[in-house]
User: Fold these one by one.
Assistant:
Number 1:
Amino acid sequence: MEKLFVIKIGGNIIDDEIKLSSFLQSFAKIEGKKILVHGGGKLATKLAKQLGVEQQMIDGRRITDAETLKIVTMVYAGFINKNIVAKLQSQHCNAIGLSGADGNCIVSHKRGSNSGGIDYGFVGDVDAVNSILLKTLLEQNIAVVLAPITVDTNGQLLNTNADTIAQETAKALSILYDVELIYSFEKSGVLLDVHDETTVIATINPLSYQTLKEGKKIFEGMIPKLDNAFAALQSGVTKVIIGKAEELNQLISGSSGTSIVQ
Amino acid sequence: MEKLFVIKIGGNIIDDEIKLSSFLQSFAKIEGKKILVHGGGKLATKLAKQLGVEQQMIDGRRITDAETLKIVTMVYAGFINKNIVAKLQSQHCNAIGLSGADGNCIVSHKRGSNSGGIDYGFVGDVDAVNSILLKTLLEQNIAVVLAPITVDTNGQLLNTNADTIAQETAKALSILYDVELIYSFEKSGVLLDVHDETTVIATINPLSYQTLKEGKKIFEGMIPKLDNAFAALQSGVTKVIIGKAEELNQLISGSSGTSIVQ
């Protein structure tokens, strides 16, 4: 099967114009099929503040009320998505920016208010990825840029976790492609010592993961990402790589970051 | 050739949630290939005001400085575009929302500051429509929803007149389809008496247009629209219809509005 890269880029890179530009230059150079999933960054929070829309966060998750949904739709699916697409075009990488509503490409359902007693508001959990539409675009050598906004079957837009979108997209497309899923962010990979960037763990497999967890060697915030990575591998994704956004090309070549394997 | 409807919807309908909903219900019901081009409405102006970004208008045209470009990208390509797409999905009309940057589908150039001595800022005049991408989507029975934001060859996003986008899209696709271009807005059509909605002129051809203009029977604001309509017909568009957004189905069946013909 042909290779496909599904690459998630974190919010902190999006907030840094120079880092973003450099990342997109690397992304543009990747040969073959590719999908970029972007998070939100701080711009939505900033805009909400400017507009006097109060932001409620629970456990690091934004509660998305109607006004906040409007803001994240504008910022994620509008400003960030179109700026990324335009920058890729300027690098001669033909790209198309989509929300989950476009072509129903990522359909979700509103998270039930009974999930831990917290009502997250207009937040969606992914049900289905329209791999046919994505394949049609990829086959035209168009890079797909996905914003973390999805839609339910009633046409309700929903704010959705970008990591989850990357994972579900990678899983859905693993039937059609040899998919490598890359989570790129500010750290060099999964670190043994969270304060020391030179302690990157090159490879993690299920057995070593168990040992690392038992020895409490894994930074707590990393555990959901790793759990998701193993779930993706079990669903057909070939390889999951976690590492520094500035080292995208090295992540792909395998000379940097952490590889999660079966 | 198969029929394709290219339908422009004016800003005042977008600002009215009930009218927009009813319009989209009619749009969803149109059988066959269709493209919707939407304008901006007053939301961008409102948001600019809330954010303290001063809006400069010259001859009814917005001067698009960097901050205003950010706002219109958020509002047009984000909020309005994605809400229209989500509403169409809820009507079981599969739709995809694009800006001109997406798949380079509408490439423009920045309007020269020597155009009448006015510097319009980040405003684009359309150079090319990527009919191949649009055809690919249409052939999958996906309705395309175009936001009035385009891109130049350097990846600069540009604010662009939605009427022009509709016209250029209709012209470009007239090689592949039998295109009917519909401008839908708040009036019932081209009126003999601008204050009397019952004075719709059913048909205008080049000869009757000349007579109407000479007799000063045409409302001045209508003249650029009609000039563009005749230009579209000369470039291969089959028919141009101008009329009320609330009467979309009647505009298509020919029982309402003004038809502009060769």
Note: Residues 66-90 of chain A form the longest helix (25 residues).
Number 2:
Amino acid sequence: MSEKYKRLISKLLEGDIRSAARLITLVENDIQIAEKIISQVYKHTGNAYILGITGAPGSGKSTFISTLVKKFIEQEKKIGIICVDPTSPLTGGALLGDRIRMKQHFSMGNVFIRSMANRGQLGGLARATEDTIKILDAFGCDIIIVETVGVGQSEVDIFKSAHTVLVLLVPGMGDDIQVIKAGIMEITDIFIVNKMDLPGADRKVSEIVQMLELNMNYKFDNNNLNEDFAKINRWTPEIIKTNSKTGENFENLLEVIAKHKEFLLETGVISNYLKSRIKSETLKILKYKLSQKIEKLIDDSHAIEELIEEVKERSMDPYSMANKIVQMLGIEENF
Amino acid sequence: MSEKYKRLISKLLEGDIRSAARLITLVENDIQIAEKIISQVYKHTGNAYILGITGAPGSGKSTFISTLVKKFIEQEKKIGIICVDPTSPLTGGALLGDRIRMKQHFSMGNVFIRSMANRGQLGGLARATEDTIKILDAFGCDIIIVETVGVGQSEVDIFKSAHTVLVLLVPGMGDDIQVIKAGIMEITDIFIVNKMDLPGADRKVSEIVQMLELNMNYKFDNNNLNEDFAKINRWTPEIIKTNSKTGENFENLLEVIAKHKEFLLETGVISNYLKSRIKSETLKILKYKLSQKIEKLIDDSHAIEELIEEVKERSMDPYSMANKIVQMLGIEENF
């Protein structure tokens, strides 16, 4: 552990925003460095409440988050926002270069926004997001919002860290439920029908209710907990209509988020949740470490070039090649 | 290798569609069985030309593919379609239950559609897609279309198998380029401005041109080939406006696809491409195998329960836990 990291971490713990930003860049870019930093930071975490927010493009996510953040600021909360959605205009850093919308919060000094767009591989992205959450937690954020684009398995992976998952839908967008459905729906705690002033808001609510009824049988909980436990202590997803421009129903939303937090604490779900989160996180780190090693091996090894030639000529198939590599590594006997 | 699989495979090679469907289900559901089947099927592959087609929801992908498929049928091609997009109405099996749109092709007996929606994990999905491609290849498909939703790293992974990658954009959808941008753009061979009858088609073409110019410096090729080789033998992405309803410009599109195929063959890019595809595929299999083993280990082991408790109390961090597991497995010394 170099002196540089130690200094950054002690400044992070004092609430220095530049050190937070620097440490996040460090953990994002290199898992070896991430390891050194997180092993020091970890004991200072566990205070932040993590919200996962997702929704298809067009659902008004950024205005929604802006409004929500204003409400949290009124409660004197310190807030961290992690944008995993590459199209997010919240920082837009990576793609749109427009930091204007959230600027008023920046200057208030209690909102920290970070875009994780385009950071390497998926496994790497989920891992980097987890580590960024930890740094913002140690930085003293009361609430950490993780924003994703909400289509596909990657989000499910990223949302394993969230205490409360919010999914935004809008009236009249016929296929948004379909888009969101694949995997995200099962882990949603609160459905938001945003842009409630548009026609069809109530129909959208009915669609969600219908979908939830259809899926009651296999919906358990956030984190693959013990099924019996989860069945008894099951959170019934709530549906809230909001207008992010006027702020309508946001007080109600804050209450429901608080209610979900209470549910997690009172039922003890939060302890199981933490356990399953640790499992999934360790798994992510393990997979990522092993993947990196294997990739390096495949790129470097002469023996593997020969195997590739055989597969190219179709005298060997890719599965047999994978098995040969497992043998070469002596991995088999250790499992 | 059981007799059942052998019989299915020999019927597959004779072009029996039910055997194809059955074998795909088998490889999808179980990597152990996939291994047995693919090791027999692999030597019969290598004839199909693989098209990757993607586009944001609303870009008219299904009508586009329907029209494209009709053109291929006119050329007496046998076509396989793999829908990785969970929202795809092409089969819609998984989510919408509507197989109507493509039915006319079904009945002609030379189009086979398969939805891969919601099949397990991402790594598993990419792996299952690769294996499905191989079965359709051995089944005798001349052309295999892989359809995805086009946002995120998962598609990049899936498209590593495609010879030619088509991305659909539409006039007036402001943010579709932004959505597609993250990773997909770099591997696109042909940009389609679909719904060319809508206002703004030419502006969309300019936007694509602009984006391509911006990215010229880091755009190399489909498959992380040797950079120098790729620089010399670089395909300049083409842009084609289409109207999927009238079929306008589809002849032109077919010519450009043929031109890209010729490019791959004449430059020898296709050989490098195959090599890099084998690498990435073996890597996928290896990662998937190791992941499964690690997941099983983490779920079963008592020793790991104890580590989790330590992390829960924050007397250990997840990275240290991952390292302990690597040690327990004796993996370290083999790398």
Note: The domain at 45-269 of chain A is CATH 3.40.50.300 (Rossmann fold).
Number 3:
Amino acid sequence: MAAAKFDVLTIGNAIVDVLAQTEEDFLVREGLVKGSMRLIDGKEADRLFEHMGPAQLISGGCAGNTAAGVASFGGRAAFIGKVADDELGRFFRHDMHALGIHFPATPLTDGTPTARSMILITPDSERTMNTFLAACQELSPADIDRETVEGAAITYLEGYLWDPPKAKEAFRIAARLAHGAKRRVAITLSDSFCVDRFRDEFIDLMRTGALDLVFANRHEVLSLYQTSDFETAVSCLERDIKLAVVTMSEEGSMVVADGRRVRVPAAKVDKIVDLTGAGDLYAAGFLYGLSRGFAHEVSGRLGSLAAAEVISHVGARPVESLRQLAGQAGLAA
Amino acid sequence: MAAAKFDVLTIGNAIVDVLAQTEEDFLVREGLVKGSMRLIDGKEADRLFEHMGPAQLISGGCAGNTAAGVASFGGRAAFIGKVADDELGRFFRHDMHALGIHFPATPLTDGTPTARSMILITPDSERTMNTFLAACQELSPADIDRETVEGAAITYLEGYLWDPPKAKEAFRIAARLAHGAKRRVAITLSDSFCVDRFRDEFIDLMRTGALDLVFANRHEVLSLYQTSDFETAVSCLERDIKLAVVTMSEEGSMVVADGRRVRVPAAKVDKIVDLTGAGDLYAAGFLYGLSRGFAHEVSGRLGSLAAAEVISHVGARPVESLRQLAGQAGLAA
């Protein structure tokens, strides 16, 4: 096995976030489930945009955010996702390149726009996402750059890739290529509704050994095993996969590995502003630590630290250097 | 004179800000003067964008920011400026409408893009602006909606409008229409380099009575009268115009009216993050207060409060309700 060229490759939907502060009333009027992600079409995207408040545009997408986090720790990151050859696509690509993230993109030129997610931030800092996948629907096996996958110590895939049909196939191919090169494959279950849509397939991927590491939050792991008992869910999880991380918001996280469970506390946040990206950045810290051979607890602490940074401001990507913050916290990074 | 339909109409360059955190080194390498605004062409905009860090897009432009501030105080605001019929133009228009700002726009369709300003924020929170005016070059007398101008208690113009030649003519026409309807006309001198480019014209506008109120910061008023002595500059200013406001960063501001000078303290800020928009939001508070007939000192305090809000986060428009903040501060708003 050749030395890895990248610490972490993430594959996911390439999305520009359209973030706006929103009153609770607006969610009620629109019939939106707070904290969830729903998929919308272009027409609904235009309609919702017209009704939502003043916004800011920040590159996002779960896997893109995680790559940004890995890069901010000083890790060698790569990203695969589909943008269009338009203004937002150029903006997204710019941000990846500016972070030093390898992004072997072939932008779409058929007129389909770059994906956007309208993210409504309520006064409790919770985010409710409305995603128009657009160009992301066209991510296909042809976009899976073999050299990049084989050169990455860990390939990290988002569960949301199960939504666009061609992306699902791209996901499977990437996982096979990675394992063929004796690399590790990780997944995030993305959200409980996503788990609900693809439960059997996710469990099958775990049981057949297509995945080495699963990230899930409490809602997702409960949804995965269709139980309301957390202990039951975690027991199922540890039977199905050798390494799993369950994030639990302000209660921190739990690393489940080889029959052992390690609890990791959440990091302190002065003021929570916007929860968008918390899970993505937790994954960034953990994956970075894992790629560097740190103990699971240290990797979990790097995850907590990254999550704390990203929820202290609007937008799902770090604005402070995570490498510097890790150094200040006494975590080898 | 009919009752005003709008408290404040602002006319200026319609710009989307592309904001990025930047190390001091980058400014040095690029030969940029910290704190300034320079005009660049499309080619230079592309080149600089490629080299700058990850960014966020937030609607900006001095006059647009001021209108957003007036609206946030609960004032009836209108804005005139030129966007293109493209993604950024739609984003800018959306933000104005979402704030309830009347924006009688005819977007440009000749392929010229919407203006953008690449704003580099250094660790000291100072901002250095690189503006590609693009569609703003096409603001012309035809865009000056007579009904809107005549219906606004105050028309506020930015000095930067002196850069695009047709906009200058539009400015003059707007000022005449406003005075014809017995309304007030205000200007911001925008920046000291702008003053340097158009010194004689600005002084002429003041002396001929085309303006009723001038906003300037310390650098601008020194540049206007080509002196390094602040007292000399202020004395000249009060001879040339009946109402002027000089902003002095952390030292607050001074309202100069009819031979009297009123000092207004700056408002407390926990942590300064990004100075972009400080002057624009000060003007919003002052203009809102003036339109409601408040004492100059109260209007100045509203300006200080709005400036303090906007420098506490990235982006040049308020994210908290200025009306609410004013209420909490015991200022009638």
Note: The radius of gyration of chain A is 18 Å.
